[in-house]
Amino acid sequence: MELDWTLSALVLLTLYLHVPQTVPELYSRPKSDPTMNNRAILEGATSLTPPSIAFSSIQFSTGKCWIVVVVVVVVVVAVVVVVVVVVVVVVVVVVVVVVVVVVVVVVVVVVVVVVVVVVVVVVVVVVVVVVVVVVVVVVVVVVVVVEVVVVVVVVVVVVVVVVVVVVVVVVVVVVVVVVVVVVVVVVVVVVVVVVVVVVVVVVVVVVVVVVVVVVVVVVVVVVVVVVVVVVVVVVIINGIRSRVIPGADEPVISDPVLGTVLIGHVPETHGSNVIVVSG
């Protein structure tokens, strides 16, 4: 929308700069005048030397036209450059922020998982050790008491010790298995989370880059088209095409403002050449 307003303002500026400061007076010759054939004579025309390069004061100035065209092109290109730079900077900032946030989240998750796993393992090991120690102490106490109080066969003591050892081993094995399973699960979860996060970040970055490239390409194409259109319009408004009408001895100028005008010699103007508007 801002670009449209800018172009409109520049076109209006172009038209303003090319409007003549003084418009020559137009008047109609009587129909009875055979030399004019009821054509309107545009007074104040530039002398024709040669006639084919005549310019009337109502036509636009070529110099001003090209100055305005250059100004339009420079302004449009500058606006496009600013827009593209702003878009690219914003996209880069967004991508960097997203990547940093993702990395921080991944690091935090990994650290938390590792801490939890370590705490769990330590707690489990401590519990196992305590249980084993307690069991062994109890067994020893029982055996000693039994031996002191009642004379027991050595076989009974051996059986008790074996049972205690087996129980302790089973407990330790179970604890170790549980800890290993927990650690494996935690590691798998962390790896999956990290992979998902990395994939998401990569996809987001790719999408952002593609969008930025597409936007930049579209902006450049639009700017080129607009500049070309503006230049063509200004050149058409400013342009004068000389040609010769079949059957006529004198050249004519096709002007987008006046229409077809003839270059002729009129005795009433003391022999000076004037531009006669067809009509």
Structure characterization notes:
This protein has a domain at 22-59 and 244-279. Helices cover 68% and strands 9% of the residues. The chain has helices at residues 2-18, 62-149, 154-238, and strands spanning 26-28, 40-42, 241-243, 252-255, 259-265, 273-277. The chain has a six-stranded antiparallel beta sheet with strand order 1-2-6-5-4-3, with no helix packed on it. The protein is rod-shaped, with a radius of gyration of 49 Å. It starts with a helix and ends with a strand. The model is unreliable at 1-5, 15-63 and 240-279 (pLDDT under 50).
The largest pleated sheet is described as: 6 strands, antiparallel
Query: Are there runs of 5+ residues with pLDDT below 50, and where?
Result: 1-5, 15-63, 240-279
**Which percent range describes the beta-strand content?**
5-15%
Number of strands: 6
Roughly what is the average pLDDT, rounded to an integer? 64
Helix and strand content put the structural class at alpha+beta
Shape: rod-shaped
Radius of gyration, in angstroms, nearest whole number: 49 Å
Pick out its properties.
alpha+beta; disordered N terminus; single chain; 6-stranded antiparallel β-sheet; 279 residues
Detail the topology: elements first, then pairings.
Layout: H1 2-18, E1 26-28, E2 40-42, H2 62-149, H3 154-238, E3 241-243, E4 252-255, E5 259-265, E6 273-277
Antiparallel strand pairs: 1-2, 2-6, 3-4, 4-5, 5-6
Helix pairs in contact: 1-2, 1-3, 2-3
Q: How would you sum up this structure in a few lines?
A:
By secondary structure, this protein is α+β, with helices and mostly antiparallel strands.
